[in-house]
């Protein structure tokens, strides 16, 4: 059990508006908003612009609710990790009970309002996403298995499917491929981070792959998942969300990503320590650009299609 699950302490300092924003993990939420919007805009058909905006807003609120619930439960871990110690709960600016109440309230609001505004398939996917991140990943996988990032990555991969379902009322090959793009991207992205932040995970007792199996094994896993990711990323070019623009982006970015993963997989740990994991840090930074470029290309294809220029 985590300290946050039974902690009755109140915040030691007065919370500012920014603390409540931080509670919702805005950087993670920005990825949720972007991929959900792409899924919605790339879907066949269309909805009224106001409905589209409101749908993405509900998905964003649901993502923020997940972040609040994650911070509530993980307060004990966050206190001992250098990169998370200043978060609102471990720093004492927001009380755990307050974060829990915010997370639950926003969860219910976002799901109900998305269902009323669009359809209940999209709402059900959002509800499952919140449950998966807050319960399956945060409360179970993160603390019990080195596959935490692999399986838990599904939570961050659902937003484009939700956006797609908000328009179509269902799931398709295209939305599954957008899901797969984020799902398979998550392990190499986070394992690259773990390679140079391993001490934090060891200190917090989080069974990250670098902690349980070592950096050498993690490097091989990064390469393996990057190869699998490249296959799905390029395959998406030949579906309804793809086209020549997307294909060009996918070929270039996946070639660069594969090259980076190959270099990381063949790195000697002594060399990595000597240059302070600069190669791993560059790979991690590029992984953020990688996802943005792919979804940006999907959005570009969707924008060009009405003009007879997108798609094949």
Automatic annotation (TrEMBL):
Phosphoprotein as UniProt keyword: no
EC top class, as a word: transferase
Membrane-protein topology: Multi-pass membrane protein
NCBIfam families: cyoE_ctaB, PRK04375.1-2
Further remarks about this protein from its record: Carbon 2 of the heme B porphyrin ring is defined according to the Fischer nomenclature.
Reaction catalysis annotation: heme b + (2E,6E)-farnesyl diphosphate + H2O = Fe(II)-heme o + diphosphate
Location in or out of the cell: Cell membrane
Annotated keywords: Cell membrane, Heme biosynthesis, Membrane, Transferase, Transmembrane, Transmembrane helix
Pfam families given in the database record: UbiA (PF01040)
Keyword check for Acetylation: no
EC assignment: 2.5.1.141
Record's protein name: Protoheme IX farnesyltransferase
Molecular-function GO terms, alphabetical: protoheme IX farnesyltransferase activity
